[in-house]
């Protein structure tokens, strides 16, 4: 089994935009990898002229919101940083026991999505809260904010189209459906560690992705050595 990884375009955004962007991206990915019977629900973004689709499952929505809440706490403590939120799909397998290890359950990762964000601190206009801001400065600030928001919306659209292209092009690595009653393959959402204080650079992103990919391929190779490949692959309509 191969583990496919998708690096999404970096999005430059302010803290108040993070929640809406993550909802849009995470739900889009999960919906396009959904299983069984789903009740698609169109959702209009509050900050952008963009509509995305959710699976209509309350438990799934709750889990995503909880993870976004955790990430927002991290953002508040680490302002003006580059960071990465990852969504990984995996299979659960029982590892064959040996003479010194009992039966162990392991995760075989088959797809990983890396959402790259650069959360910037909004620019402060004026020297203090009590100082009067010239009208021209207010207009310039408004134009700058509108231009930045339009750029972010365009980049977010690019990310959504990238997701759609990826799920349509990459299907051979998808494992058989584990259970017709579940909405989604098993998945996990990872965010930066709470005590992580270093800046996030492109090289660190690449190294992190490389380590994750190595873990995927190593785990998959080990599984292939003890069990034959699945007879059929799930085909997405």
TrEMBL record:
One of its GO terms (biological process) is autophagosome assembly. GO terms for cellular component: Atg1/ULK1 kinase complex; phagophore assembly site. Signal peptide: none annotated. InterPro entries: ATG101. Coiled coil: none annotated. Keywords: Autophagy. It comes from the Eukaryota. This is Autophagy-related protein 101. It comes from Platanthera zijinensis.
